[in-house]
Amino acid sequence: MTSEPVSPSAPFFEPLTPPDADAREQAMTRQSMLTKPTGALGRLEELSVWAAACQGICPPRIFARPRVVVFAGDHGIARNGVSAYPPEVTAQMVANIQGGGAAVNVLADVMGASVRVVDMAVDVETDPVVSAFKIRRSSGSIDREDALTHEETLRAVAAGRAIADEEIDSGADLLIAGEMGIGNTTPATVLIAALTDTEPVAAVGRGTGIDDAGWMRKTAAIRDALRRARPHIRDAVGLLRTVSGADLAAMAGFLAQASARKTPVIVDGLVVTASALVAEELAPGAREWWVAGHRSTEPAHSIALRHLGLDPILGLDMRLGEGSGAVAALPILQGAVATLAHMATFDSAGVSNNTEPESDAEPAPETD
Questions:
Q1: Which residues have CB under 8 Å from 359's CB, separation 6+?
Q2: Counting CB atoms within 10 angstroms of each CB, which of 7, 22, 159, 344 has the fewest?
Q3: 179 contacts 272 by C-beta, under 8 angstroms
């Protein structure tokens, strides 16, 4: 069913429906019937139960059409030397992703997913195919000015919702959000620090691989932006307007709308998880429809994952972005679903299921 178009002035999200509790219970029961000791598949069992609850059926289905959407945008703060790469790389990488040459494309091809890139705020004109939802050229330098206007923020969130609707209505049964934007770990870290009450020095990472001088510049920028963000901590829209960017705001709308549409999501690294924090503020309970793909090397990412209560599937020291870590976790999730759906049960396989503990103790003597 297609959602109604979202007006920028419309209320954001109605109360969300959580994943199906009956399907979850059935999946847990089925796990106890499969030809293995209970708990022997570890996290795979937990993931399979989550998938069954999200799909509302047991046994669950293998995800047939996983879809990656990469949100691209430039950030004014990048001009302050907070990244190891120049801002011009954003547009170049958008073209690379569109052409199928990025890491996320290669991984997605192997993992059976498709990739779409959308330009939300790249600082050049891009192909109309990717710029249909574009909000502006670059976001403001958040250490000294708002990233967006109020109206642009609402439009960006609405765009993210519309993109999620497009993908779900065209058949996507699992979504992955990715990102591309030089300097985007700076606003992401500000959002995480603001929403988790974390000091900048505890949250700032190396991003694309900055040196010590770059780390100091980045920390100073985050400190200044965090000072501007703190008055808006209880106002998700105000926080996005002040210190995010059109790409991050759109991802927040995308992630929340996926949950509103009862569509599971694999959450990627630092920048996507920062947007997920805001999405949970916009639509409380959205996180129940998400699983974390991996844990990046960025310290703020671990802080955000703990805040959301998400335990990542992988820990491969990745820090690329693009959705690459989430895509790398996809076959693990698919394997988890397959084991629950297709393993034999003890009864069907004719395998003994002796759940009674063995005892070497002598039987007690009979008494008169």
A1: none
A2: 7
A3: yes
Assign 3-state DSSP to the chain and report helix, strand, coil percentages, each to 5.
Answer: 50, 10, 40
Question: How far is residue 126's CA from residue 109's CA, in Å, rounded to a whole number?
Answer: 24
**Known catalytic membership, residue 281:** no
Note the helical H segments in the chain: 21-33, 43-55, 89-98, 103-111, 150-169, 185-196, 200-203, 212-229, 236-243, 246-260, 270-282, 299-308, 324-342, 346-349
pLDDT tens for the 368 residues of the chain, in order: 334 444 443 447 889 999 999 999 999 999 999 999 999 999 999 999 999 999 999 999 999 999 999 999 999 999 888 888 899 999 999 999 999 999 999 999 999 999 999 999 999 999 999 999 999 999 999 999 999 999 999 999 999 999 999 999 999 999 999 999 999 999 999 999 999 999 988 998 887 678 888 788 888 999 999 999 999 999 999 999 999 999 999 999 999 999 999 999 999 999 999 999 999 999 999 999 999 999 999 999 999 999 999 999 999 999 999 999 999 999 999 999 999 999 999 999 999 986 544 445 455 555 54
Beta carbons of 281 and 195 less than 8 angstroms apart: yes
Tokens 């050049």 belong to residue: 124
The single-letter DSSP state of residue 140 is -
Would you give the distance in Å from CA 167 to the centre of its chain? 16
Which residues sit opposite 179 in a β-bridge? 71
Handedness of CA 175, 12, 234, 226 (dihedral sign): positive
Q: What is the pTM of this model?
A: 0.92
